[in-house]
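Progress against Task 2.4 (sequence-to-structure conversion) is shown through the following example record, which the project officer requested during the mid-term review.
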Amino acid sequence: MAVKENLTMTSDFTIKAREVDFVTRFTDTWEALREIMGIMRPIEKTPGTTLTSYTASVTLENGDVPEGEEIPYSKAKVKPVSYADLKLKKYAKAVTIEDVEKFGATAAVQKTDEAFLFELQSVVMDNFYSFILTGSLTKTAVNLQSAIASAIGLAKDKFKKMHKNSSEIVVIVNTLDIYDYLAAAGITTQNAFGIEYLKNFLGAASMIISSEIPQGKVIATPAGNIDLYYINPAHSDFKQLGLDYTVQGETNLIGFHANGDYSHAVGESFALMGMKLWAEYLDGIAVVSIQGAGGEGGENDNLETQDLEAPDLSGMSKDELLAYAAENGVKGVSNADKKENIIAAIEAAM
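Structure tokens generated for the chain above:
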């Protein structure tokens, strides 16, 4: 007896489970990154629209209003800020029936899915790292610890001058740079879905460790300066083309679909994503270079600490000030001292 039309077969469940597993693993990685970096504002771009955010400012009138007189309005301004358009990225891979027969399904399908997933994640992160390295708050420091303190101080100072919150600072450092320090200090890192990081370390709320950052560079910016902008692959407009991608999670960052092509005897996999991490204020990103590391410094390698421009000491916490003092040979300060006394000692030594 012939099988009824549209009967759901076991193979349908296998393919769907693979699709769900793929998008779930991708989403888990980005949810971990969002939590580490403090990204609170994923913004969805819908078809037919452009992304626009707004900046607001208020100029206060004099609050000393005599009794009974009308209270003047403070002037409020709202300005739209447009961003570069976000493009959909389309990717595909295929595994032949001969590959499965030769290597087995685990190697031919699952292993290539894992490699596919890694490369898709790398596309987004590589673009983000390239972008944040263009931050306009630049400076040179004598070593890693002073570079971290300087980067945090620069980022905090900039945001305080703009009257914006800068309490949670995200720092990104090169793997080789930080591991030399960690080995000496006996500190271990945390890892979430392949993202290596430290929490509440050397004044940073989060410190991400990455080999994508050039050696000798330290980057810092407030968590609120980082946004995630994305296109939902499951949008109904796409389904009108007959394209139905599997998605997962509250924020649909990637769509995945797998099917068999009988005419070529291959298993096809398709991924659709449009996502971008960027900073709202480019001049709120500090990029500090370490002298003599990663080819930086050149003829300035022999500069003494006091020849360097001092960071914004007032923007540092007491712990950051003490770390900065220790790295630069400032004596006679301790945790028992008040913050202003530590600053005075550092400035005197400079």
